[in-house]
Amino acid sequence: MRLNWRAVVTSNTDPASLGLYIPTGVQINASSQILISKTVARAVFETPNAYYIPGVPYRGKIKLQDHYGNGMKNRKVYLVIRFMRRRFIKTYITDGSGIASFNLDTTSWNSSSVSLEGRFTLEDLIHTPWKTDFSYTNAYHHLQPFHVTTKSFLDIHPLTGTLPCGLKQNVQVTFTLSRDDLGEATSRIGFAYYVTGKAGIVVRGQRNIQVGKLNMLKGSFSIPLTFTADFTPSPSLVVYAIFPNGGVTADSIQFDVALCFENQKCSFPLSSNGSRNVPVAVPAASTDWKVKVFCLAGRGFGLAPTVSLRTGQPFFVDVMLPYSVKRGETFALKATVFNYLQQCIQVCACATGDLMGVALQNLDHLVQMPHGCGEQNMVLFAPIVYVLQYLDKTRQLTPEIKERATGFLRKGKLTAFVVKSFSQARKYIYVDDKNIQDALRWLEQNQLPSGCFATKGSLFHSSLKGKLVQTTLRCLQRAVHNITNIYTEAVLAYAFALAGDYETTQELLYKLEEQAIKSGGQIHWSPKPSSLAPRDVWPDAQSVDIELTSYVLLAYLSKPRVHAGDMTTAAGIVAWLTQQQNGYGGFASTQDTVVALQALAKYAARTFSTSGQALVRVKSQRGFEKSFQVTRQKRLLVQQAALTEVPGQLLVQVHGSSCVFTQTVLRYHEPPRRTAVTFTLRVNTELTNCSQANTRVFTVRILASYIGSRVTSNMAIVEVSLLSGFMLAPRSRMLLERKNIVKKVEVKADVVYIYLEKLNDESQTFLLQLEQVIQMKNLKPAIIKVYDYYQPEERALADYSAVCS
């Protein structure tokens, strides 16, 4: 009920009698409203949950309000709990906001319905006739049990109050695990968590807990969180665990976080004259900036006039040029040099103390080939895991290296191979265990009674294999004595070495030793040994040779007992493998890079030593000389220098006692050599006329087919190098992707990759429209290649030119 009143004051005809200096007849009006309520206090449940999980504490809040709706602080509030004809009363004290938090044990509720009542007083008011009675409003809430199939539970403890920005908060999580959910063989369980904010999932992670042998296991862990502007306005935390039997337990909570802003205020203490000089770093760019300053004080807001600031670089060059050019081509290079310096400046063989150093420096450039589908993307994933494992074993893994490497892992489908790589990566990044378990179950479903596996899906590379499970050995054991394929022998040797079967591994290695190719202290294997042409100064090994040799090295290093003679053989294999590495630490193709880096990492870990240092000197006959000091602190650093005398002979001298890997990298362009024909490739260019208006656009017609020894090729790539100064027309890409045989089109600055699942003897046609963006003279032909992705030596080449050049 409300009481309204209104007062009117009218001036007297004799102002002097009132003491007021108001003209006669003037009125002053005033009105007000008074709230009259019989309700002294009101209890309210704050956002209650309608369900409880038996065995998990139930948390809630009661707010006590006065008749105005304001919180009543430091007052008693009573919580009455009723279930199974039983009644319990708990007493709480409200905080400064009038809220009392409660935490109830649900184990004795026996999955029954529960009634909660919040009260200001325990006494029931008695009505008195002819007297105004005060009343109190109680809060009521009913709970139902949440039925779950698991006997395991987890509980997130809430953080009280409004959480500040930028401060680390530890969120406590308690859990109760049942052996029925875990299974007898489980020794570790992973709890995954993620936090959602305005940008979706902003934080994710996993906590791995070792499981004991008790039937019920209780424990806790904490999750550190620092709330920033990405979390606001209402971040939520979800924690869950997935058990081997398929059961799930989870909990979630929402946080109350203060408003977080990207722009933070800064305090600049003023000097005695009321001014302050503040140094500010500006971006390295030549541009104009607008500077605004404002201040806040108790008396108001101050805004200073806007000031312009012009920044510039002391020396820079603005160049307009094509992405790449070939020797002999001519184009107009437009370069504008801006030099505001008063003095002169200078513009500028590799050596590293670690076998894995070059690969570590180039984790994202290990393979210089397209990687547009799942199988190829694994080459960006698996080698990083092997490098991390090596650095971890040798205690060289720094936080900076781990952050860079795990960043590549998070950015990066072959079931067995992915299971293997993801399982090894779990130590460094979060990988959902469900993905691994689902893949293992899929493999188990496709295993035949003999222990072998049924073929499922289309595998682009027929030789690709993954780590074998124990039950598969029955299938392989029967085939060992009948195998004549050297590649299969190498893979089996590695498989039995992993399984701990020393005798079978040795039997296979003896057969492989008889087929080894040895020369100059180097050892390798090849399915098709051939003599290299004399002009091959640095011969390119076939990718299958690298992969095969790497499997043999892994077999030697993975045996249950590795002898000194095995390490001598391994050193010869490593000498050959390192000679095949490219300038980025990778190899020819995808799978050979994966297996070779795994083998090299395993060898490097076995031979690692913290002692020793070396001095490497590189000299030429014409005066060039450079020294590299390789120490323990610099072993992962790739030290390099530009060779100024090319061509020429270089002398490399090493002094000291340490492992040093040296490499000479020469980058140049030359027309590719023609090889044995396994593909057919014909290229035509089409242009209606050569008038100035038409020379900027023309069409390239490509016809390709496979004529090798197999029925079809593996996954094939049509690689189109673009003419200097040209680019692919956007519409041309869309037309290519509409062809059924084309799985993907990848466009780079100077090359176009067309992914084909396979090619057969039926000719396929591809049309590309090219547009000229920079005028060129003496334009050189560009190369078009079609090749087997996994055996790049199987290819066909053709060149094309702009018809009017």
Walk me through this protein's architecture:
By secondary structure, the chain is of the alpha+beta class. The chain is built from 14 helices and 43 strands. Strands 4-11-9-6-7 form a 5-stranded mixed beta sheet, with no helix packed on it. Helix 4 (374-393) packs parallel to helix 6 (415-425), helix 11 packs antiparallel against helix 12 and helix 11 (543-558) runs parallel beside helix 13. The radius of gyration is 38 Å and the shape is extended. Mean pLDDT is 77; it is low at 347-351, 363-372, 407-417, 453-468 and 531-538.
Oligomer: single chain
Q: What's the count of strands?
A: 43
In the predicted model, the low-confidence regions spanning at least 5 consecutive residues are 347-351, 363-372, 407-417, 453-468, 531-538
- Under the CATH scheme, the architecture of the domain at 679-800 is Sandwich
> What value does the Rg take, in angstroms?
38 Å
| Arrangement of strands in the largest sheet | 4-11-9-6-7
Question: Please, how many helices?
Answer: 14
Taking the sheet with the most strands, its summary is: 5 strands, mixed
- CATH class of the domain at 679-800 reads Mainly Beta
Measured as a percent range, the helix fraction is: 10-25%
CATH structural fold name of the domain at 679-800 = Immunoglobulin-like
CATH superfamily of the domain at 679-800: Alpha-macroglobulin, receptor-binding domain
pLDDT average, as an integer? 77
How far from one another are the termini?
95 Å
Percentage of residues in DSSP E strands: 25-35%
Family: Belongs to the protease inhibitor I39 (alpha-2-macroglobulin) family.
Pfam families: A2M, A2M_BRD, A2M_recep, MG4, TED_complement
Domain Alpha-macroglobulin receptor-binding: 713-800
GO molecular function: serine-type endopeptidase inhibitor activity
